[in-house]
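sry for the spam today, last one i promise. C-alpha cells for design, 334 residues
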C-alpha cells in the first residue's frame, strides 16, 4: 500500500517517469495507476494531439517505440498508454533499446496484466533503472477484509467485520468487483457510516443470514438445525451459492482450526496473527475447538476432500450437489 501511495503522490505532483511498466496478477491497481496518468498528466486541451491509447493485440513494439519517440505538440509531455500489453509478451524484450534511452518528454505506460517480466532479463533491469516497475500481486483471502477497511477508512467510512467477510465470500478476491460494490454503498450511505451486514444485504443482495459465513459459524457451534436451514437455502439458490465455494471455505476454516489446536499460546492476538484472521473472529475458533477435537478435525479435512472430488463429478454416481453438501454436513457434525 505504501508503494502505491508513493506512486500516486509522485504522479499528482508531476514527478513523472518516462516508462511505467505495470504488471501482475491483480489488475485493480494496474488500472488505477493507468487511469490516474490518463486523467491527470495532460489537460483536456492537450490530450487531442498528445495522448494515445493503444492495445497490445493491435500494435507491435516497433509501432509503440515510433510513437514514443515523437515530440509533444504544444505541451510539455505526451502520454502513450498500451492496454492489454500482455498480448505483446512474446516480443516485449524488443523494448530494451528504447528503455535504455527513453524519450524524456513521453510518458509511456504498459498495462501488463496477469503476467510479469522475467527479473533475470535485460528489460526488467533496464526499466527498473530508467523507469518504474510495479508488480500488482493478488491478495490472499485473509488480506482482502483489511484492504476493504483501508479503502473505506480513506473515504471516511467504517465496516463491521462480518460485513467485510460477507463481501469477500460473495465476491472473492477480485478487488475491482469489490470496489464497485463499495462505491455503490458510499453513494447510498452518508459519510461516517459504519457499514453493517444489513447494509450489505439491502444494497448488494447478499443474504446476511444465509451465506457461507453463517454456515461456517453454525457448523463451528454444531447448530445442526441452523446449518441445515442454510444448506436448504443454498440448494434452492445454487447459482448464488456454488458448492465448490462452500467446500473451499469450510476447508479453510477446519485447516485453520487444526492450526489453532496446535498453538501453544491461545492468546487472542497470537491466534489472529498465526491464522491470518481478524481478532473479532478468534472466539469462533475457540468455540469450534471445544466442539471438534484435533482428531475429528483431521477426519473432517479428509471428508471435505472427498466431497470436493464428488462435487466435480468423480464417484458421485449422479448425486445432486445439494445432497453431497447435506451428506457432508451430517458427517461433520455427527
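last one done:
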Amino acid at each position: 500500500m505504501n508503494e502505491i501511495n508513493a506512486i500516486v503522490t509522485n504522479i499528482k505532483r508531476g514527478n513523472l517517469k518516462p516508462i511505467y511498466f505495470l504488471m501482475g496478477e491483480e489488475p485493480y491497481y494496474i488500472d488505477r495507476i493507468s487511469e490516474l496518468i490518463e486523467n491527470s498528466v495532460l489537460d483536456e486541451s492537450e490530450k487531442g494531439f498528445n495522448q494515445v491509447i493503444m492495445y497490445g493485440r493491435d500494435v507491435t513494439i516497433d509501432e509503440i517505440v515510433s510513437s514514443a519517440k515523437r515530440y509533444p505538440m504544444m505541451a510539455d509531455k505526451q502520454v502513450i498508454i498500451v492496454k492489454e500489453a500482455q498480448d505483446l509478451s512474446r516480443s516485449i524484450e524488443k523494448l530494451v533499446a528504447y528503455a535504455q534511452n527513453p524519450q524524456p518528454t513521453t510518458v509511456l505506460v504498459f498495462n501488463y496484466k496477469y503476467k510479469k517480466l522475467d527479473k533475470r532479463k535485460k528489460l526488467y533491469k533496464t526499466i527498473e533503472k530508467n523507469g518504474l516497475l510495479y508488480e500488482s500481486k493478488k491478495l490472499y483471502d485473509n488480506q482482502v477484509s483489511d484492504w476493504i477497511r483501508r479503502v473505506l477508512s480513506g473515504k471516511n467510512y467504517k465496516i463491521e467485520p462480518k460485513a467485510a467477510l460477507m463481501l469477500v465470500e460473495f465476491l472473492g478476491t477480485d478487488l475491482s468487483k469489490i470496489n464497485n460494490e463499495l462505491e455503490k454503498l458510499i453513494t447510498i450511505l452518508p459519510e461516517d457510516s459504519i457499514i453493517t451486514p444489513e447494509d450489505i444485504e439491502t444494497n448488494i443482495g447478499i443474504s446476511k443470514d444465509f451465506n457461507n459465513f453463517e454456515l461456517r459459524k453454525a457448523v463451528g457451534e454444531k447448530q445442526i438445525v441452523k446449518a441445515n436451514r442454510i444448506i436448504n437455502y443454498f440448494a434452492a439458490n445454487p447459482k448464488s451459492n456454488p458448492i465448490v465455494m462452500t467446500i473451499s471455505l469450510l476447508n479453510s476454516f477446519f485447516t485453520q482450526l487444526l492450526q489453532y489446536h496446535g498453538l501453544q499460546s491461545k492468546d487472542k492476538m497470537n491466534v489472529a496473527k498465526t491464522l491470518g484472521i481478524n481478532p473479532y473472529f478468534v472466539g469462533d475458533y475457540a468455540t469450534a475447538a471445544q466442539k471438534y477435537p484435533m482428531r475429528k478435525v483431521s477426519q473432517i479435512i479428509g471428508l471435505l476432500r472427498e466431497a470436493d472430488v464428488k462435487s466435480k463429478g468423480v464417484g458421485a454416481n449422479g448425486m445432486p450437489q445439494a445432497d453431497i453438501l447435506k451428506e457432508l454436513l451430517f458427517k461433520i457434525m455427527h
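The mean pLDDT is 92. ok im logging off now
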